[in-house]
């Protein structure tokens, strides 16, 4: 008896999106789903690149090499994304989720990062065998919000981990053992956020063939509004000898599919079902009698067993373990990421946060933050990225620039744009100036001569003592002082005043020389 998989895969643009950023692959050894992010173009490129990197795995691997081969391929995919962004910086911020399975008979390696999902239907029970790497899911795990609150939370798509080429990728990976009669589903969140677990269970339980299950699930997601791209891969664990006809050809779907079909159409592999409307399929499903309430639970992985050991059958329970708080091996890592995030540091692998920067004030200085300028349930979604050098004081800025910084300058899509903003702010500083006042006394000013250009108020910072009269200076120096000498700060201004004081003393000792004013003639009559 030879155990293998009978599979189907489709990807649909949905009802609201202009393009498809999802990608999928299904073959006799490899199943994979990737959900792109980072804008329409970036998302398509990221998911397609990830799938293309994994496709060579669709061949025979010894059971003990499944985990290593899949793990290495994920790291290669991450490096590929890094290289793509290096070659085209406009794609910075792109990335994708990835959920994939690599098969050898009943043994399967599962890798997961992001919020796409893998489900297992076994003996009439539905199990979710991946754990979402989202901030909202971590809050559910900690008991801070309920599942119902998570379903409608405005930040439910915020990812803690993703494949984006920014650093070392940290996927969940495990070795599992499949059984004859198992049905697996890999899907993007375009399905799982629209179609309930109970409905997914019903569709998987009642569809005779994987392709029928895939079509029903996509139709149901579109019937629910189809707000996102929808991608599904379904595989049945079967005896290959019992299958009729030639082996199924590999399927590439979504953005990774070279010949994408028109908007709103799922990719159509050979042998697809006859067309029905989404409304008809949804209505038919609703009319059928629903099974008992479904429990979506987790099944522990077999773990990374040495090749010579036998995988224990009891490691995979035959019954759902009931609705309970999940104790996932990765929970510590996810919770740790949230704790670090709350401290204002750490890595948040998700497009909207990781790819955003803003300029604001901290401790009276202009600084650059990475992330979103907001808190979520007490957790900061930002951290201090950089303190520009030399330091730029907020108080030194022109009024309009100072107000902008105090209210934050956000929407900066890269660190280079944030640095450019800081550079622009340096040109909007109310300068410290050494110049004479209306009485001809050398004075330290701020903003003098910048009223019309930047709106700076001309304020006296300091009147040096003992005073220095501009008229006592050499002519060229006096003219320079009258125009104003710009310096970096008050300390340099004081040093400049001292230089002027020394020059005035020299002129008193050597009047009429080197441009110094001559001694005034005595005009007093006896």
From TrEMBL:
Gene3D superfamilies tied to this protein: PPM-type phosphatase domain
Residue span, PPM-type phosphatase domain: 6-237
Keyword Transmembrane found: yes
TM annotation in the entry: 328-350
InterPro entries per record: PP2C, PPM-type-like_dom_sf, PPM-type_phosphatase-like_dom
Keywords from the named record: Membrane, Transmembrane, Transmembrane helix
Residue ranges of the region described as Disordered: 502-526
One Pfam family it belongs to: PP2C_2
Protein name per Swiss-Prot or TrEMBL: Protein phosphatase 2C domain-containing protein
């Amino acid at each position: 008896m030879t155990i293998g998989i009978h599979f189907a895969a489709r990807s649909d643009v949905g009802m609201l999106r202009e393009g498809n950023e999802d990608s999928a692959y299904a073959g006799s050894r490899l199943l994979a789903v990737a959900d792109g992010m980072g804008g329409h173009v970036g998302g398509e490129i990221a998911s397609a690149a990830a799938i293309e990197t994994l496709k060579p795995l669709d061949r025979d691997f010894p059971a003990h090499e499944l985990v290593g081969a899949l793990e290495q391929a994920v790291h290669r995919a991450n490096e590929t994304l890094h290289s793509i962004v290096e070659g085209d910086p406009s794609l910075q911020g792109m990335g994708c989720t990835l959920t994939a399975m690599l098969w050898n008979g009943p043994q399967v390696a599962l890798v997961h990062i992001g919020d796409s999902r893998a489900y297992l239907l076994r003996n009439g029970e539905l199990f979710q065998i991946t754990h979402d790497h989202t901030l909202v899911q971590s809050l559910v795990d900690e008991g801070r919000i309920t599942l119902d609150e998570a379903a409608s939370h405005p930040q439910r798509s915020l990812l803690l981990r993703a494949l984006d080429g920014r650093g070392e990728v940290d996927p969940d990976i495990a070795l599992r053992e499949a059984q004859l009669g198992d049905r697996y589903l890999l899907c993007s969140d375009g399905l799982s956020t629209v179609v309930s677990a109970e409905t997914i269970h019903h569709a998987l339980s009642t569809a005779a063939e994987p392709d029928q299950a895939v079509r029903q699930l996509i139709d149901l997601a579109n019937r629910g509004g189809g707000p996102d791209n929808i991608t599904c891969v379904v595989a049945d664990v079967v005896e290959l000898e019992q299958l009729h006809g030639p082996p199924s050809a590999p399927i590439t779907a979504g953005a990774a599919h070279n010949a994408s079909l028109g908007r709103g159409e799922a990719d159509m592999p050979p042998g697809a079902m006859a067309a029905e409307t989404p409304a008809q399929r949804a209505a038919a499903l609703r009319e059928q009698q629903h099974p008992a309430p479904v429990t979506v639970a987790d099944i522990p992985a077999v773990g990374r067993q040495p090749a010579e050991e036998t995988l224990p059958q009891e490691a995979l329970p035959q019954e759902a373990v009931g609705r309970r708080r999940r104790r996932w091996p990765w929970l510590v890592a996810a919770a740790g990421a949230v704790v670090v995030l709350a401290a204002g540091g750490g890595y948040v692998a998700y497009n909207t946060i990781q790819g955003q920067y803003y300029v604001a004030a901290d401790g009276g200085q202009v600084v650059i933050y990475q992330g979103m300028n907001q808190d979520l349930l007490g957790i900061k979604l930002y951290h201090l990225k950089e303190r520009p050098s030399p330091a730029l004081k907020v108080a030194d800025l022109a009024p309009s620039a100072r107000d902008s910084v105090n209210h934050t300058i956000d929407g900066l899509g890269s660190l280079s744009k944030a640095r450019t903003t800081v550079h622009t702010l340096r040109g909007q500083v109310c300068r410290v100036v050494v110049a004479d006042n209306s009485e001809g006394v050398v004075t330290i000013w701020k903003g003098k001569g910048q009223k019309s250009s930047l709106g700076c108020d001309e304020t006296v910072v300091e009147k040096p003592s003992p005073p220095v009269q501009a008229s006592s200076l050499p002519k060229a120096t006096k003219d320079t002082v009258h125009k104003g000498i710009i310096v970096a700060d008050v300390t340099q201004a004081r040093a400049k005043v001292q230089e002027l004081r020394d020059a005035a003393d020299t002129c008193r000792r050597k009047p009429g020389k080197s441009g110094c004013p001559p001694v005034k003639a005595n005009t007093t009559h006896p």
